[in-house]
Amino acid sequence: MQRHIPLLKILIPFIGGILLCSFFPNLNLQFGLLFGILLFFVVIGHYYLKKQINSKLQLVVSLSLLFLVFSLGYLISYYKTPINSTMHFSKLDHSANALVKIVSNPSLKPKSVSCEVKYLALWDSTRKQNCIGKAQLYFQKDSLSQRLKYGDLIVVNNEIKPIAAPENPHQFDFQKFYASKGIYHSSYVKPFSWISSNTNKANWIYKASYIIQDKLKVKFKRHFKDENIRGVAEAIVFGYKGELDDNWLEAFSKTGTIHVLAVSGLHVGIIYILIAFLLGLSKSRRKYIALKTFTVLLVLFVYCLITGFSPSVSRASLMFGLVLLANLWQRQSNIYNTLCFAALVLLVINPSNIYNVGFQFSFLAVLGIVFYKDYFRKALPTSNFVLKKIVVLGAVSVAAQIATFPLGLYYFHQYPNLFIFSNLIVIPCIGIILYAGIFFVLFSFVFPPVAGLLAKLISAYIQFISSAVLSIQEVPYAFFEDIHISFEQLMLVYLFIISLTFDLVKRNKYSFVIPILCCILFLWSDYSIENQKGKKEVIYFNIPNELLVGFRENDSILFLASKGVYEKHNNFNYILRPYLVNERLINNYDILPLEVTRLKSDLKLVTTYGNGSIWFNNKSYLAADYLEDYITDSLAVKSLIIGQKKSPQFYKAIKRIVQADAVIN
User: Fold this and answer.
1) DSSP bridge partners of 118
2) pLDDT of residue 2
3) Inter-CA distances, 441 with 80, 238, 244, 429, 447, Å
4) What is the DSSP letter of 10?
5) Which residues fall within 8 angstroms of residue 274, CB to CB, at 6 or more apart?
6) What Cα–Cα distance (Å) separates residue 285 from each residue in 288, 320, 328, 346?
7) Domain boundaries, the chain
8) Which of 110, 207, 316, 318 has the most CB atoms within 10 Å of its CB?
9) Is the dihedral of CA 396, 402, 407, 413 positive or negative?
10) d(CA 58, CA 554)
11) 600-602 and 589-593 strand pairing
12) How far apart, in whole angstroms, are the C-alpha atoms of residue 94 and residue 122?
C-alpha cells in the first residue's frame, strides 16, 4: 500500500470545515478573521523556518496550516451557498416580475415542464434590482412551454415559494435535496404568467451537451423499438435515465448491479481501455506520447460532454487525466493522492457534493477497489486465463461492496446477497454493450444500416442481462430489504471495517479490541432503538385530498386510510414505507379503509362504535374524510382528524355535528 498521501491531510480538515458550516452557518465573520490571522502566521512561520529549522515552530505552523484549510473549507462552503448572499432574490424587496434564465435541459412531465432557472433581476413599475439565486419552476404543459430550451431568458410573475420541509415522518426530504443544488424555492407557473424574451444566452459547452443528448435520444428511439431495452441502452451509453422501466430498475438494484445503469468510473474505464488500445498508448515512443495523451484526454472530455458532465464521470475522468499527465511528465502517481485531489477539486467547485449520495458511493467504491482488490486476488491465485479474469472481477465486486454496503443499508435499506454472481454476468456484457454503443453512435450519423445491426447486438445483450437479473431477483433470499440502521450505527460499521482491515494487515495481538468494541456498541445501539418502540401514539400523515392516520402501540400499528391512499401504490412507497422501515414496523402493520368506523368492532389496537368515532388509549377520535351518512348524531370527541384541502362548507358542516377539543387537518 502506498502510504504517502499528503493531500489527505488537506482533504480531511477541508471536509470538516464544510460540515461545520452546515451546522453553524452564521460564523463567516469569525472564520474570515481566523483565516486571515492563520494565513499571516503560516507565512511568517514559513519565512523563519527557511532560515532555521525549529521543530516546535514547525509543529505549530503545521497545525496552523490544518486549521487554515479547515477555515477555508468553512468559508468556501458559506460563500458557495447562494442563499447566504445579500443579493439572493429572497433577501430583496418583493417585486411583481422576474427575469430568469433556464439553466437546465427542460424535462417533460405528465402535466408540466420542469426546469431549473437562474434569477437575473427583479423589477416592478418603479425600479429594477439585479439579483442571484436559482429556483425550480414547473410550467403548465402547453405548446409554448414545450418549446422552452436551455439558455432561454424569460419573464415570470414572481410568485415564488420556499420549498417545504417534509410534512410526514421519515419522508424523502426534497428541501434538503434541492438545497444541495443551491435551490431553495419553487413555483408552478401558469400560462399567461410568463413570457419569452426571445433571447437565448446559453453556455456553449452545456448547450452542446444538451443538443448531443437530444440527438442521441432520437437515434436510439429510431433503432430501439422496445422501450425497456431502449431505456437501459440510453442509461449505459450516455447516462439518460428518463425511459428506464421501474421493474427493471428495481431488479438491477436488488441484485447489486444498479451501478451499471449510472454512468460512472466503470464506463470511463472501459472507454479509456478502448482508446488506449486503439492509440497504442502503452507502446508509444516518447515523441508521440504527448499527442496520444491529449487525444485520450479529449475523448474523455467529449464523453463528459455527452453525459452532461455527470459528477461520477467527471470524477473518474479527472482521475484518469491526472494519472495520464503524471505519466507524461514521468512522475509516479499515487492513486490515493489522485483520489484525494479529485475529491478536493469537486468539493471546491461545489461543497454540497459532500452530501450527494452518488458522490459518496463513487469515491468509497473506488477507494475499496484500490485497497482491497489485490488482497483478494492474492488469496485466490490461479494461472488459468479464464479463472484469473473471474477472480479479478469477483475481487473488484467484493472490494467495492465492502466499501459501500453500509451506505446501501443506511440510504436504501437493502443488501444484495447474490451481487457476486450478478456482477460476474452483467459487467462483461456491459463492456460489450458500451463498446457497441460507441460505434452505434458513430455509425448512426454516417451509415445507419451498420447502426441498425449494432442496435440488434446491443438489444440481445441487454435482453440477456435483464433476464439474468430478473431471474436472480426471484431466487429465495437473493436480497435483504427493509433494513434500518441509524447514523451512529453506520459510523460504527465503518469503524469496524477500518479497524478490522488494519488488524488483519498489522496482525497485532491486541488488534481485535476495537472491532469487538464496535460490535458491542452496535448491539447496544440496536437494543436502545428497539426499546424506543415501546410507546402509544397517534400519527397523522399529510396527503393532499386524502386522510391517513396511524394508531401505534409498542411495535404494532394500525392505519385507517381513505380510498385514494390504499389504492395508489405510490402513496405506500413514498409515504408509508419510509415510516415503517425507519420505525422498524414493516412486519407489524395493518391498513384498513376508513369505512370500518361505520361498524361496531374491536379491531386490533382500536375500538370503533359504528358512528365514526374511534377509541384508542383511553381517548376518543373521529377521522372524517367526507360527511359520511353514518355520522348523523352529534358527537363529542377528544380529537377531530380531517382530510386535506377540504372546502369551508365541509368544515362548517362537520363542526355542527362534532364537538372536539382539538382539530387536526
Assistant:
1) 101, 134
2) 47
3) 37, 10, 19, 18, 10
4) H
5) 435, 438
6) 6, 20, 11, 34
7) 6-79, 89-202, 209-481, 487-525, 536-664
8) 316
9) positive
10) 59
11) unpaired
12) 8
In the structure grid, which three cell numbers stand for residue 221, read together?
A: 428511439
> 629-651, pLDDT tens digit by residue?
545 567 777 777 776 666 666 66
Looking at 175-320, which runs of residues are DSSP E strands? Answer: 183-189, 194-200
Q: Which three cell numbers stand for residue 24?
A: 453553524
- Give just the sign of the alpha carbon dihedral 378, 382, 388, 393: negative
* 3-state helix vs strand vs coil in the chain, percent to 5: 55, 15, 25
Query: Which residues, other chains included, contact 387 with Cβ-Cβ below 8 Å and sequence gap of 6+?
Result: none
What's the per-residue H, E or C state across 361-405?
HHHHHHHHHHHHHHHHHHHCCCCCHHHHHHHHHHHHHHHHHHHHH
- What CA–CA distance (Å, rounded) separates 103 from 601? 57
**pLDDT, tens only, 504-523:** 887 776 678 889 999 999 99
Q: Which CATH code, of 3.40.1000, 3.30.450, 1.10.10, 2.40.50, is assigned to 89-202? A: 2.40.50
Q: Can you give the pLDDT at residue 330?
A: 64
* Cell reading at 44: 511568517
Q: What is the DSSP letter of 261?
A: G
Q: Write out the three cell numbers for 261.
A: 445503469
Q: Among 540, 519, 550, which Cα is nearest to 616's?
A: 550
Q: What would the grid cell of residue 474 be?
A: 426471484
Q: How many CA atoms lie within 13 A of 421 on its CB side?
A: 14
**Distances from the Cα of 231 to the Cαs of 302, 313, 317, 327, 391, in angstroms?**
22, 19, 24, 38, 31
Give the Cα-Cα-Cα angle 656, 659, 662 (nearest 5 degrees): 125
Residue 429, C-alpha cell as written in the block:
456484457
Is the pLDDT at 574 greater than 50, yes or no? yes
The pLDDT-based confidence of 665 (bands split at 50, 70, 90) is low
pLDDT tens track for 530-559: 888 778 888 888 887 788 889 998 889 999
DSSP string, 516-544: HHHHHHHHHHHHHHHHTT--EEEEEE--T
CA distance 148 to 190: 14
Which has the closest alpha carbon to 444: 458, 464, 461? 458
Q: pLDDT digit string (tens) for 438-471?
A: 899 999 988 999 999 999 999 999 999 999 998 9
- Please state, rounded to an integer, the average pLDDT across all residues of the chain: 85
Residue 582 has pLDDT above 80, yes or no: yes
* DSSP code of residue 572: I
Look up residue 459 and give its amino acid: S
Q: What is the pLDDT of residues 362-409, one digit of tens each?
A: 888 888 888 888 787 777 777 777 777 777 778 888 888 898 999 999
Report d(CA 514, CA 503) in Å as an integer. Answer: 9
pLDDT band for position 627 (cuts 50, 70, 90): low
Pseudo-torsion of CA 17, 18, 22, 27, nearest 10°?
Answer: 40
Q: Which three cell numbers stand for residue 621?
A: 377520535
Work out the pLDDT band at 1, boundaries 50, 70, 90: very low
Distance CA 395, CA 428 (A): 14
Element (H, E) at 442: helix 419-446
Within 8 A by CB and 6+ apart from 189, the residues are 137, 138, 139, 140, 156, 157
Contact in structure between 137 and 156 (CB atoms under 8 Å): yes
4 vs 191, which has greater pLDDT? Answer: 191
Residues 6+ apart with CB under 8 A from 594: 547, 560, 561, 562, 563, 623, 625
Q: Is residue 518 within 8 Å of 526, Cβ to Cβ?
A: no
pTM of structure? 0.85
533 is written with which cell numbers? Answer: 418502540
